[in-house]
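Researcher: Next entry in the queue.
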Amino acid sequence: MRHIDDHDAGPEALLLRRIKECLSDLELLLERSDRRGVDRFCKFYSGSLKAYHLQTETGEIVEALRGVMPERQMDAQFLAIMARGTGKVFNIAHNARWVKEAGPVVEAFLHARMMLGQMAECGRSIDSLPVRSICPGWQLMRCLYGML
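Model: Structure for this entry, 148 residues:
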């Protein structure tokens, strides 16, 4: 079993090392996203345009995820979900199509938040590679950065 201190230049070792290096920042972002995100998530169900403010949290999370492995392309499906759920500006006509218009904003936040949460969990719980047991969070990180 290799330990991440071995300076292994492989992409998975690099990913784990970088996650651990920025773990405290990731956890702060996770806490802040949860605190603000829950309120804005609730706004979706009350039909408030404040649901669109979830895009702020989503953007911050995606920026942090990109910052962990900036040299790697992120998963195309993840990026497509982010594209559909960000850059949206509320228009009064959206009220008539609320789920169709605001739903992608919520979907993007939830996907980004899941990635961030699993990244933080991997940073806390994985000490060495290879990961011996089936670890869905690590598999998710490998998918996000095209390592499968």
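Model: Confidence is low (pLDDT under 50) at residues 1-6.
Researcher: Noted, moving on.
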